[in-house]
Design goal:
Structural class: mainly alpha
Shape: globular
Order of helices and strands: EHHEHHHHHHHH
Helix content: 55-70%
Distance between the termini: 22 Å
Strand content: under 5%
Radius of gyration: 18 Å
Number of strands: 2
Length: 175
């Protein structure tokens, strides 16, 4: 059996769901809760087969996730250095993601190098309208939008789905 180095991102339920609803406003919260549970429930039997990156760790100490990958798969990926310049570059890649650039998508998949994507950044930047909201990038506006969704989050009719998703989140972390 070939072991392919893989990392799975997991995020606390409420933050993940509200962020997704901001990004995809036409999707129902009920559907996102169901999809979250189903996704991680299907991965649970394979939990020991990949590295796990909790959202806060991925966004603030990604080098630790790379160390986990290297240790688990005996690889030698370069660790991410959490510097202002590197974080700015990551946020720019996130902002440009909505262009569906084959170069950026290839970079996300590991098929395009960082140097290759940097070489094509100017043409990718030109494809993003300046007035577009930056739906992939953290901002005060996104936090206000999440706050506006909290009443929807607390609907009693969603309690069972929230509980199911919370349970799978905790099982996944303990894995």
């Amino acid at each position: 059996m070939t072991r392919i180095p893989a990392a799975v991102l997991i995020r606390k339920l409420q933050g993940a769901m509200l962020s997704y609803l901001i990004r995809e406003p036409n999707v129902m919260l009920r559907d996102t809760l169901f999809a979250y549970s189903r996704f991680y429930e299907h991965l649970l039997p394979y939990r020991k087969s990949f590295a796990l990156g909790e959202f806060r760790q991925v966004t603030h100490e990604f080098g630790a996730v790379i160390r986990q990958l290297n240790a688990r798969f005996d690889t030698h990926f370069t660790e991410f250095t959490h510097s202002d310049a590197n974080v700015r570059e990551c946020l720019e890649f996130c902002r440009l993601r909505e262009t569906d650039s084959p170069t950026l998508l290839g970079f996300e998949s590991g098929l395009v190098t960082r140097d290759q994507v940097r070489g094509e950044l100017q043409s990718v930047r030109a494809a993003v309208p300046r007035e577009e909201p930056e739906a992939w990038v953290p901002s005060a506006e996104r936090e206000r939008a999440k706050e506006a969704l909290r009443d929807q989050w607390l609907q009693p009719s969603l309690a069972q789905l929230r509980d199911r998703a919370e349970l799978v989140y905790h099982k996944f972390l303990v894995g």
